[in-house]
Every structure is written in C-alpha cells, then in structure tokens.
Amino acid sequence: xxxxxxxxxxxxxxxxxxxxxxxxxxxxxxxxxxxxxxxxxxxxxxxxxxxxxxxxxxxxxxxxxxxxxxxxxxxxxxxxxxxxxxxxxxxxxxxxxxxxxxxxxxxxxxxxxxxxxxxxxxxxxxxxxxxxxxxxxxxxxxxxxxxxxxxxxxxxxxxxxxxxxxxxxxxxxxxxxxxxxxxxxxxxxxxxxxxxxxxxxxxxxxxxxxxxxxxxxxxxxxxxxxxxxxxxxxxxxxxxxxxxxxxxxxxxxxxxxxxxxxxxxxxxxxxxxxxxxxxxxxxxxxxx
Amino acid sequence: xxxxxxxxxxxxxxxxxxxxxxxxxxxxxxxxxxxxxxxxxxxxxxxxxxxxxxxxxxxxxxxxxxxxxxxxxxxxxxxxxxxxxxxxxxxxxxxxxxxxxxxxxxxxxxxxxxxxxxxxxxxxxxxxxxxxxxxxxxxxxxxxxxxxxxxxxxxxxxxxxxxxxxxxxxxxxxxxxxxxxxxxxxxxxxxxxxxxxxxxxxxxxxxxxxxxxxxxxxxxxxxxxxxxxxxxxxxxxxxxxxxxxxxxxxxxxxxxxxxxxxxxxxxxxxxxxxxxxxxxxxxxxxxxxxxxxxxxxxxxxxxxxxxxxxxxxxxxxxxxxxxxxxxxxxxxxxxx
Amino acid sequence: xxxxxxxxxxxxxxxxxxxxxxxxxxxxxxxxxxxxxxxxxxxxxxxxxxxxxxxxxxxxxxxxxxxxxxxxxxxxxxxxxxxxxxxxxxxxxxxxxxxxxxxxxxxxxxxxxxxxxxxxxxxxxxxxxxxxxxxxxxxxxxxxxxxxxxxxxxxxxxxxxxxxxxxxxxxxxxxxxxxxxxxxxxxxxxxxxxxxxxxxxxxxxxxxxxxxxxxxxxxxxxxxxxxxxxxxxxxxxxxxxxxxxxxxxxxxxx
Lengths: 288, 336, 254
Hints:
By secondary structure, chain A is mainly alpha-helical. Helix content of chain A is about 70%, strand content about 5%.
C-alpha cells in the first residue's frame, strides 16, 4: 500500500518535472538541455531572495519564476535562434548553458546540503495508514491543476491553438501568419517557467543540491523518451512507469538507484521500441 | 558606388603541389611538409625543452590525452555525424578495465593498456550499439547519460573500489617512457586518422554525415559503418583512459568527470572540426589554459561552456581551419 | 528470359497514423520492361517505392524479387540483391565533387562482388571508374563538369548523377521516383535516350511519373494509383482511357 501511494506521488512529481522539457520539445522541436539547470536556478534564486534580500516567500517564488522564464527567453533569442534547425548544435549549446549554470551555481556558493526551502504547509495526514505529508498532496493537486489549465489553454485560447498549430506543422502555421520565432521563444519561456514552478513545489521536500540539476535533466529525458517524444499520454504513462520502478528499487535495493533506473529505462526503450510507448515513428528516422 | 566582393584563390604553390608529380623544387616540398614537420619536431622535443619545468612536463602528458580524446570526438562528430557528448565514458571504461587487468589479473602495464583499450572499445561499442540506427539526437543523449550512469552505479553498488577507486596501479618504468609513449602515439593516431579519412571508406563516412538516406540507397549498411566508427573512436578513447589510469596509478569515479567530456568538444569547436589537427591544437590551447584556471575551481567549466557556446553561435570555422585557409589561399577584392 | 516476372508485389498496405496510404496494392513487373506508375499527388506512389526498397516497413503484404521474398529487408540488403532507386528530391553529397559521389555506391558490397568494374577497389582506381560511369550518363569527360562540387551542378545533371549512382551498382531493376520532375523539355529529351540505353542493356525500369506524355514514349506497361489503391493496369493508352483514371485526374461532372 505504501508503495502504491508513494509510487503515485513520485510519478506525479516526475511528470511535473518533465512537463517543461516535453512542452518545449513538442511545440518547437527544441531540446532544451538546460531544463535541469533552470530548475535549480529557480530554487536557488528563491532561496537567495528569501534569505539574502529578505523578501517574503511568495514574492520570492514569483520573482524567481519570472527570472527563469526570462532566462528561457534569453536563451532562445540570443543563442538558439541562430542555430535553429541544427539539432546537434542545439543540444551542445543548451548543454553548455546547463553546465555553465550548474557549475556556476556550485562555484558561487551552492555547495553542500545546507540550503533549503521551507514547505508551504507542514504536517501530514494518513491515507490508508500511510503517512503522507501535506506538501506532497499539494504538489499532486497543483500538478493536476497545471495539466488542466494547460489543456484548456491549448484547446480554447488563441495562443494555445497557435502553439498546437506550430507543434503539428510548422510550415503550414507560418503560412497562416503565426510567427514561428515568437512561438518558439514563448514555448521556451513557458518550459522554463514550468521548470521553475516544479522547482518551487518540489525542492521544499528536501535540500537544494546542485546535483538535482543533472538528475532532473536525466529524469525528464527518460520520461520523454520512454513515453515517446511529442505524445502527452505517453509522457504521463512513462512517468508512472519510471516513478513506480524508482520506488520499487528504492524499497528493495537502495535509494542510490533512482537515476540508474531512469537511465536503464532510456537504454531499454531504445533497444526495444525506440519511438517510445506512444511516439510517432517518423520522429526517429529521417523522412524519405 | 562600385560593388565589390571578396575572391579567394588558391596560392600558386598549392595548385602546383596538388598533384604529387608536380613537386620539383625545395620550396614546393617545404610548402607541403613544412607545417606537419614543424608540428612533429616541436611535439617530440617538448619534453626536452621543458626539462626545467617539471610541472609543465606533466601537463604535456595530459595535453596529449586530451588531444586523443578530441581526435575521437572530431572523428565521430565531423566525419560521421555522431555527436558524442560523453567522452569521459571512454576514459572511465578504459581506466577501469586497465585497473581490472592490472590489479585483479596482475598483468603488467604493457599488456593491460592494449588489452584494456580493446576490451573497453568492444564494451563501449556494445553499449552504444542500440542507438546507432536512430537519429543523431539519440546518440547525443545516450553518450551524455552513460558517464553519469556509470558514476552512479559504481557509487551505489560500491563495486570496483566505490568512491575511493582502485589504487596501486603499476606506473611506467621512467618518466621518459611515460612521456614519449603518449606523444608518439598521439602523433601516430593523428596522422593515421588523417590518412584514414582520405581513403574511400573515409568518403563513405562523410557521406553518412551528409546524407545517410543516399548512402543506404547506395547499398551500404550504415549501421555497420557507424559501428566501425564508434569502435575506432572508443579504441582511441579507452587507450587514453587506460594510459591515465597508469599515469595516476589510480582508477576512480573522477575518470568519468565532466572535464573529459567538455574539453574535447570545446577543443574541436575552437580549433576547427573535420581536420583533426584543429582538435589537437585546440586541446593544446585549452589544457594549459585549464591549468591556469585551476584555482577557480568549477568555474573553469563555466568558462569552457561560454567559449563553446560563443563559437557555436558565431558559427566560427575554428582557429586551425582559419589558419589553413590563409596558408592555402589568398584573398582579394574584385569588382562585381 | 525476357517476359518472366522479376518483381512481384502482393497486397501491400501501409497506414501512417490514421491515414491509409497504400491499400492492398498488387502488381507484377516483367524482366526487361519499362513499367510506369502514375497517379495524382498523394496517391501513395513514393510510399510504394519506399516499401519496395526497404525504407519503410509495410503493414501487410509481401514483395518478391526474382522469387525471393524481400519484404521488410533493410535498404542495403535490397540494393545488394539488385534493386536501385533514385530519390524524388535529389540529394547528392553536396560537399563532394560529382565523381566522388560515385565512390560511395562503388564501395558497396554489390559493386565489389558483382564486379564488372575493372580495377574498382584498388586505391585510386575508383576515381577512374567513377568518371567512366559519369561519361556513360552524359557528363562530358574532358570538361570540368565531373569535377565540380555536386552542389554546383544544375538540376539536369543532378538527376543524371542520381541515375549514375544507381548504375554504379549494376542493378537489375532501377526504380525512378519522378526523374523527369523539374526538368525542362530539352533536358527531358536528352534524358530519354539514357533511359532507352539502360533498357537496351537489359535493366528493368520502374518509373513513377507525373509527366504522362514523356512517360508514354518509353513505358511498356502502366499502373495507375489513386488514394493508395490500384485503379488500372495495362498498356499506356488503354490505362489513360480508363474512366476511373480520368476521374482521378480530372474529376467527374456532377
């Protein structure tokens, strides 16, 4: 029973983490390898604002999410725009940015496990005799809320439709007057903001450590590959698969294995069904 | 207002020396052999020149190791189209295999190094094999992940020495062998790779990078070709790894460090891709630089990343490619 | 020998997502003939070629080449057995000179095992063989054209380069995907003798084409596709008179 509850919670957390990466990739085909670093950046920025500038908790959160979104915008407009289309260069460039941010933070003071963000609500309750703290419940609720609002946004608002249009067929959308560059920078900003949002929700569960930057990146990529790039349902199901696998290994082996599970999932998916569970086959091989 | 454009023309001496039969004078021959010969002589005499700076003598060893890694990255990325974001994977695999052969099987270093290179290459190629039929993105992702994966596995299972690593590897008999082994092998591999790319098979690999559907339609099994390239690159990488393990007499998780992944990429981008000399010169610039930056701690990775991003975004051709172009061609402005 | 069936397609079907691109397509190609495939845009012609040559796996159906099943074999195996194809959008190796483009097919296992190219394989001789093949295809040997970068060639020459790439593998069947597209009348006029020459050399040619008049000058038999289904097969002028074909191309009056 414990496994089921914790497994579900872990899976929802995973899906929230991967949301930003999946969004940016499915809309604009931009692999944002800086995703994990933006996650950590928001966390650290929030901590800075709260503890050095002595701002309140909520203003710090909002400010740091804003900063991360702006960082995403800058990454697109200064760097990715010029190398758009050369997927390998995009990966190298965003990975280099990720390294710059993560290692820069490590050098700048984010060392050791001494920084942490306080949870929003403390205390816990028992579900089926399993202790679940309120913070985790809050995360699940907010995750559902995020999915719902994203769904409504992309289905019913003009901007959302524009994003879906670009996701399906970039050239056709451009012909209809949708500015591909604008949409791309928006999608990157949105993905970064989501990274930051998940950061402020999830980081209070533990300490802020720089390694989380790499771990978040690995988890997001694992979820997206297993689920299939470009498929929402796939990402969701994949996060449950990986989430449960992680909880099971944590229970029966040791807690060091979380990332190993994610990485194994990637390798196994690539061997067995490279397009992922629900991915479209054309993502993988060149169209002839 | 007269419109002008830049015109680039090959120098006379290059045109003359294009076909071997045309070389007749000393200056023609010097034009062709000059740069490579200076490079070889300089590199071979470096240990002697640095006799009075023992710290920098040791840096030369590291420089050559990174040069080999950069060659393997350049080969995969610019000659086959596979971008390997995790060069440290090869270093780690080579280093650990060398430690296994040297410590657990008690083989001497002159057997463990070649053996580790080959076994390491086979092992790495097998692990990378699943993503070869897929788009290049997946290769990049998988090579990025593998060093991280192995670090965590070794940490978690506490095998192969865990976080402390395996100590007590046999070192080279004397510093001169140490130095000259790596220098000579670097030179040999550099010229071997250049020669290899000029063969027909090199052309096929470049074709795969350019347009792999046409290569498939021309009756060539591109997965096999990619496998071969990964094997060659991992052979070079694992050799460097096993050399380093014997140099430091220790094999540990730090063999999977980020430096080994990032510096080859930066070196190739800065020096110029596709010609192998660019990556070698690039690493000869970056490694001493990183020594200077050592007291900055992990900030040096920030600096590499920034330089790397700048070169990518500005789509620069690379230092050595630029110099080569200047050497072979001259420019002038002509009216349109 | 001529008249036997060399390529046989049985009930080929393929869907992409929800879209059924090929629907139960069956036909035979006889050795030594020129077989045309026509149909409006979107009728699945290129997908058919991709399935036959192994670039795409069909959902169902079987393909036989000389009585040997080749369904779902990878492209290099199919090329090795003797089927070559051109691409609709020519993509030569842009960074290489034209004759170096041919080194790659000459490197393939088929070119090396079938032989017939004297000296191909020893260092440097592939270059000479490549220039010879280009001459067969219509590049003037003594000009600079074979040595120009493939990116700098005009489209007519690029199409010939595609054909040269196929010829370098000494195939028994060449499948041409819209080889006349994008060419002017005079370029097509100089391309047709090339096709007739390959025909006389005994190569079976399958041509997917839009330009019906030019196709009818060379084709022996024709098949028409519409929305992934075969709607007619037979002699060219009989097929074009078929009411279903007319309806596919021109529409009906209501």
